[in-house]
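Subject: for your reference before the review

Hello V.,

The reviewers asked for a structural picture of the protein, and I figured it would be easier to keep everything in one thread rather than splitting it across files. Below is the amino acid sequence we used in the manuscript, unchanged from the supplementary table.
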Amino acid sequence: MGGRQRPTIKTVAARAGVGRTTVSRVINGSELVSEKARAAVLAAIAELQYVPNSVARGLVTSKTNSVALVIPESESRLGSEPYFSAVIRGASAALAETRTQLQLVLVRDQQERDQLTESVAERRVDGVLLVSVHEHDPLPGLLEDLGLPTVLAGRRGPRESLTHVHSDNTGGAAAAVRHLLSRGRSKVATITGPLDMDVARSRLQGWREALTEAGRPAGDELVATGDFTEEGGGIAMRSLLEHAPDLDAVFVASDVMAVGAMLELRRARRRIPDDVAVVGFDDSIIARHSYPPLTSVRQPVEEIGSTIAHLLLEEINDSEAPRRHVVLPTQLVVRESS
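And here is what came back from the structure prediction:
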């Protein structure tokens, strides 16, 4: 008996015949559970004598002095996109002032989502910073249901209920397009990010608003959807050249995709900026070292990281703290590509 392993949320879920998310909700008093499921979970908890880690520790302070920074993306995207490293730097610097540990968590599949759910339910972290938010990702809603302080870099949509921080994506995109129009460009296309992300939809909206106000065309043939990768930018640029071969400028929703777009333009023997001007978004190190150097919309990514960290600490230290929505300004940085 003394060598028996202590039961876990996974064990309880298997005994009750439900998912780990349901067990977590029951433990945390969520109402989003049927009475039948609740009864099955409580019976399994009693039968297995399951005790959550947080309870076993006695909840002396109810704090672990650690928070999780969760990125629901692959390692390749994490490694190739400067945005993520800048957010991590900003958050880490802000938390270092308080001696709060930062745990980096990648959530790439259902198994890793379950592991995160179990960690959250057992209060192994005091809060969560969620980066790269997709519209239908269940994670934000799950974290909200579990009652854990959570702050987003980005948002699911304009009615986001959780505290969140993002750049002025619509305004930044509009400024980029106005710049291209001011340089005499008449047919400005765009490469968007994945449209299940508010950041991509907002930058598309800015492109469309600037063209509409100038009386310029903003038809579907001028829009290609990318995936925030270099390869995706190249594929999208190829599609644009097929559907709108007379385009003379393109606004690209990220610097990484812009590099892919410029490679494709060179393959098509289009000179940059003589034949096609290019503007990116982020003003990452990539923009300064691309060829030609890339005009880009600068967003304060490290400040996003530090701001989400400070807001999360506020919510951890004060359960009554109001949820906030912070928009940080952007700035167009003009270089040779436009």
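For the response letter, the relevant points are probably these. The CA atoms of residues 241 and 310 lie 44 Å apart. The chain is about 45% helix and 15% strand.

Happy to draft the paragraph if you're swamped.

O.
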